[in-house]
Amino acid sequence: MIEWNEQGEVRNARWRSESGAVAPRRVVVADDTLSADTAYRLACEGTGLLWQGDFQNARMLLQALMRRVDRKPAKAAAKAAEKMAAATPAEAFHLHRQAQAQRARVLSALLIPLEGDYGIDLRRAPDLRQACTEAWGPATGERSVASLRELLGLVGAHEWRKKGVEVPALGAAPNNRIHPYYGVFSPVRGEYVDLVASADLPSKALAFDIGTGTGVLSALLVRRGVQRVVATEQDPRALACARDNLQRLGVLAQVELQSVDLFPAGRAPLVVCNPPWLPARPSSPIEHAVYDEGSRMLRGFLAGLADHLEPGGEGWLILSDLAEHLGLRTREQLMGWIADAGLKVLGRADIRPRHAKAADAGDALHAARAAEVTSLWRLAAA
């Protein structure tokens, strides 16, 4: 719960945070009279600003906070740049994540009260009830508070879900769109999909898709002629998302969705897995699609693969080497895990990233991103 004092009366509401952030200890009521400089000072101190003014003015204040948090004094900017330049790639990565986390904490200080039906009782407030329902589930009638930054993220996710992401490997438009749900990794980076689309299939009888997410790889395998796919996933949101996408694409009848950790029972001639690429601790539930602490999913897939392959079968591991360029994992470690699991490498297909950050020299991790290669490793039992 979150508490605040309003006109001498203590009030409270449910605290919502997808990042798992704790509710601010101190909350003050804020409105259109609050200056951006004062708001920034309070936010940096960890004070929550519960907005009671015009909603559009709150959005403008958030933009003003962004400008202030990104505009460091010359001395501080020079010191930070010097620290990054002297850091190892792994240290630079962790410094970058720390800076991102600090930025998020400041920008999440601007809070919006929600009614029991997710309505917002503020002047010029949009109707965000559908976006909230998609992310949080049906309203329970309980009043709540969430950061404006998170609410705008819900709106963005709602628009992506409505519009969908075109995946050329699935065929011609319009029957090639994936509609990602809030908190489910979107296939906006299509390199890994293209690798699966071009690799020679060892069999078209059956495939396992481990950690299916939006269901894009399951759909692709069916479109390539695989008769049956068993797709696994732990996240209820992702399972619902995959079911919806497979239904939209007309392939659900050939895909069995299972709520399990990693492998389903049995063996298959093809087992596909695209685990999170970076072995770091997720700072929110949404980040589990990107960060795999201790390489848990990657190592679990490798360790169990041989026991779930039919004789002569192949395991396809889709993995970026970004972690290697960041000093978070070595190629020797990866090859050691493959050997320890009783596996051998049959071949590897590589592809360069096409996303904007790979060419952005101003990105804090540009050197590693520019060198990144995504690979499809063809593995078999040794």
Automatic annotation (TrEMBL):
Residue ranges of domain Methyltransferase small in the record: 205-319
GO molecular function terms attached to this record: nucleic acid binding; protein-glutamine N-methyltransferase activity
GO BP term, example: methylation
Protein name: Methylase
Organism encoding this protein: Acidovorax carolinensis
SUPFAM superfamilies: S-adenosyl-L-methionine-dependent methyltransferases (SSF53335)
Regions that span the bilayer: none
PANTHER family, sorted: HEMK METHYLTRANSFERASE, MTRF1L RELEASE FACTOR GLUTAMINE METHYLTRANSFERASE
Record key words, sorted: Methyltransferase, S-adenosyl-L-methionine, Transferase
Stored InterPro entries: DNA_methylase_N6_adenine_CS (IPR002052), N5-glutamine_MTase (IPR050320), SAM-dependent_MTases_sf (IPR029063), Small_mtfrase_dom (IPR007848)
Lineage of producing organism: Bacteria, Pseudomonadati, Pseudomonadota, Betaproteobacteria, Burkholderiales
Keyword presence, Methyltransferase: yes
